[in-house]
Each structure stands twice: as C-alpha cells, then as structure tokens.
Amino acid sequence: AVKDGQLGSVAGAALALPFRLGTGLFVLGYSVSLVSADKIPSDQYSLGFLGLKVKETSKIDQCRRPEKPIEIYEFEGAVH
Q1: Whole-model pTM above 0.85?
Q2: For residue 78, what pLDDT is reported?
Q3: Neighbours of 1 (CB within 10 A)
Q4: In three state form, how does the secondary structure of the chain look?
C-alpha cells in the first residue's frame, strides 16, 4: 500500500530502474545479469534484487580514447 498523496513519488522513483537499464542498450557490449552476492566485490555498488545482485558490464574500455581530452566551455558566448 502507498500512503495517500505519495503515489506520484513512488511511481517516479520506480521509473529509475527501467531508464537505467534501458540506457545500457546504447553502450557497446552492454549486458546485465543477476548473480549471487559473492560475485560482486564489497567495494562495488550493485543493486540487490530477490537475494541476487544486478551485474552490469560493457566493452566500452576497448574503444579508442581521444589523444587530447575534450574541452567543454560553459557560457562561452555569454555577454556580461
């Protein structure tokens, strides 16, 4: 049961999981699996689900990185 007036908050919070897992579709080699808790090191965050842990992996570390870091300028065209 959800307390009166809190349904919107609960529904909004529940949307985080499908969006988190859904954005993985756009990452190279992304996969998600349920593993036992002992497969996840204690210093790593993992979402618990039904006594198991959600393990996310990708192959993004195999991609070439730019030689120089990308510089992002906030308010570059702003006039004072």
Answers
A1: no
A2: 58
A3: 3
A4: CCCCCCHHHHHHHHCHHHHHHHHHHHCCCCEEEEECHHHCCCCCCCCEECCEEEEEECCHHHCCCCCCCCCCCCCCCCCC
Q: How confident is the model over 37-47, as pLDDT tens digits? A: 888 888 888 88
Contact 30, 38 (CB under 8 A): no
Q: Report the residue count for the chain.
A: 80
Contact criterion met (CB below 8 Å) for 50 and 36: no
Backbone angles phi, psi at 32, to 5 degrees: -130, 140
User: Which residue has 């988190």 as its token pair?
Assistant: 20
Cβ within 8 Å of residue 61, ≥6 positions away: none
Spell out the long-range contacts of 62-70 with Cβ–Cβ below 8 A and sequence spacing 24 or more: 62/28, 62/29, 63/28
